[in-house]
Amino acid sequence: MSVQVRNLQGNEACALGAIAAGCRFYAGYPITPSSEIAERMAEALPKVGGAFVQMEDEIASIAAVLGAEVGGTKAMTATSGPGFSLKQEVLGFAAAAEIPCVVVNVMRGGPSTGMPTRPSQGDMMQARWGTHGDHPVIALAPASVSEVYTQTARAFNLSERFRIPAVVLYDEVIGHLQETVDLRESATLELAERKWARGSPATHLPYAETDDGVPVMSRPGDGHRDHMTGLTHGEDGFPTQNPEAVTRAMDRLLGKLERDRDAIDAVDMLACEDADIVVVACGIVARAARRAVRDLRAEGLAAGLFRPITLWPFPEQAFARAAEAAKIVLVAEMNAGQLRLEVERLCPPGARVVGLGRIDGTPIAPAEIRAKVQELTQDA
Amino acid sequence: MLDGRPFDILDYLRRDLMPHFLCPGCGHGIALRALLWAVHETGIAKDRLAVISGIGCAGRLAAYIDANTFHVPHGRALPFATGLKIARPDLAVVVLTGDGDCLAIGGNHLIHACRRNLDLTCVMLNNEVYGMTGGQVSPTTGAGRLTTTTPQGNREPAFDACGLAEAAGAGLVGRELTLHPPTLKNVIKEGLAHPGFSFIEVMSDCTEIFGRKNEMGSSGEMILSQASAMRPTSYGSRGATAPFHPNAFPTGVLARNERPEYGAHLRAASASDDGHD
Amino acid sequence: MSDRPTNVLIVGVGGQGVILVSKVLTEVCQARGLAVKQSEVHGMAKRGGAVFSHVRFGREIWSPTIAQGEADVLLALEWAEGLRWLGHLSRAGTLIADTRRIVPLAACLDRSWGAQPAYPRRSPEDLLAGIANGFAIDATGIAMDLGNARVANTVVLGALSAVLGQPAEDWQPVLARNVPPKTVEVNHAAFARGRAWIESRPEPRPAASPPARQPVGATAPMNGVRLVITESWCKGCDICVKMCPERCLALNGAQVVELSDAGACTGCRVCEWLCPDFAITVDRGGQEPRA
Description:
Chain A is of the alpha/beta class. Chain A has helices at residues 10-20, 35-44, 58-70, 81-97, 124-129, 145-162, 172-176, 243-255, 261-264, 283-298, 316-322, 339-346, 366-379; strands at 5-9, 25-28, 51-54, 75-79, 101-109, 115-119, 138-140, 165-171, 178-182, 227-229, 267-270, 277-280, 303-308, 310-312, 328-333, 352-357. Chain A has 13 helices and 16 strands. Chain A starts with a strand and ends with a helix. By secondary structure, chain B is α/β, with parallel strands linked by helices. In chain B, 34% of the residues lie in helices and 16% in strands. In chain B, the strands form two sheets. Chain B has a seven-stranded mixed sheet, sandwiched between helices. In chain B, strands 5-6 form a two-stranded antiparallel sheet. The radius of gyration of chain B is 18 Å and the shape is globular. In chain C, a hairpin with a 7-residue loop joins strand 7 (217-218) and strand 8. In chain C, 42% of the residues are buried.
């Protein structure tokens, strides 16, 4: 087997994807089932001139990542649900101060310590609303080992380009899955670089409006000597509570992703064009759903699969198209119905939204999805 | 040093933000001057200076410094600075923090920063109280003191921040009063010069909130009463003296620990691994 | 009292005692058997943060806040904050404002170096001309006259009690239990002075303009030493006054430091080093002592 085509574990692919995307700093804290990412980074980063630090806790890890990022180094941390909760306050700071960073959450059963070695998709909403206050976020949900590689790299690109925290969200099954990955894809990977301030420090405003809504960052040492704060700030970066200035700043912050959703949205669809029943699923559940949809089609049922790869912001337009003709939308997920809330919000009026959840630490099997669809179509 | 000019604090301030927001008589202003004076005499260019601060009265000071400044979440200045210093060894990274920020919500980060011994300078302004939130008890509030959350007097002993930092392995530990700013400046200079983690505790005064509640008089009186209680002994020879109390403390450079600096170790590991993949 | 609620808006900056004033007013109204609602914005205890409190009282109160143009009394412990809230005052409303200037953080809008703080330039005369009932009172001056600048809010409180036409006896016990025991006497005196100030004025009329502050004052060179005082940065904490070895500094009537005995100044720099507000620079004309 060529060096470029390798048998990799999901968490290993995550580390390699990050390094391919230019990640040169990792700070983390051990937590099942994500620890292999840290172990792999500890080994790999020094070889590419990067640095790995195991910090004293989850909060320190994300804070150190942001420190490295403002210094100009692409950085990442990885965790699981409990650690992701601990990081949330600092993630909010990253969103507000517009510091790029990548956080991987390998989801395990919860709440609390839950089932550390069992898979879940229980952090869908935590990824969206985990920190306090209104804030933008990007979350990507790979469904295979090779997608973990490409989506981790893509998380860096989006994070740098939009100056926003990017979360890579996958379940324990994907994290520990071994699959063959073709790393030659990395040769074609285009790396996005942050917009760095090059003009005169005298006229630079660190949070000024720009064509794409993403402000231009200065680098310590380049003469700008900017101020960065988690307090609500104006274009000059200094705190303000002036209602007009706050509204302007928040409108830009919350709206910047909307200016180029084509670059952010990513979905995978199977047979949705004429589907009466659309199954929505991501991560490992989407793989079961794919099999179920194929089987259902073979039985003559008009089923389709809608798989958001970009989970947040939810790809509304693609979903609206996929569900256009649907009578039933079945949301299959390893939680008690989190993604279903978003799907219910977006579903065309003609369709009924039904949830298929599983919270016992066991992945959803294709047969369960198939049986549920059969049951629903008989009802109808 | 700016072209060999004598120190003028205006060279280091974002003057358009002045006057600063501190209460009248707040010792934090005196400490800020001493820090900038030390930066000047050490010859650190403003472009190469990064100041990270957390939340609280001390946390707000970074904004007034004409340097690369970061006002980060409560308690997280040290780990943020850790990431920045590792990414950018060319910067002089100073953490400006308060007793609550550094010892309570950020306490875990402090002990590990001491242990790790990365080349950071942590200046902790100790005013014995959470001033920004209105005067609640802090980890360094003296026994018996009145605060809004200890209406019967504080029952918890105060942290000996320097003892903690020394025990945790900090490269350099110092403590100073605001009474004689040139001395304070010199101790901070020692910290800036030390190639490792240095921890400097500045005994500040909160006249408006803490002092008033405890009837400690004007700022001048508070500063003088600290001075009268100061024990300028060497830290290591403290021996069996009375337990730590904020009104009785040794000052000066209290401990040195010439251990390898963490960032150099990381860079060496990275260099020896280069090109092997 | 009519069914219409009475709306009192109290504004100032952190540390001035906005909350005390509204607390006393609230308790007085409660003691009179009225429904009261009070809502405030505070929390940043530091000097410079704007603080305001809405107090509404009457037979029945629903909304906790006062809409624009609905305040019967606007009580401003700080002049600039008073101006900012003027839009809340009703056409027939009464303004009571301390003319003493404090520059709140939010007023520093122009960040360019050398710019004057964006502090309102309108004189009390200009301002009061457009208001039905305006009282510009130098409450801080009165309080300093009583020996405690901190009771300026109580002076204004006394003025409020008179404007509301309520008997002093209803207010005094409430005031007494809301201030530190040691300061009851001076607070009562301040309350009485505020009340008397209103009562001695049958018609509201403007007070004299407060003296404009010089942004930077420099003393004449003495012994080759020049003290440069940035007056707008001085907060009157008295550290320099206490610590000056020659005792040559003093706070003036505006609570700003000045060189009171220029002949005694040796240029030792203790005041410069210890000024937490960086308001003093000692210019020794290049003759530097050892530090």
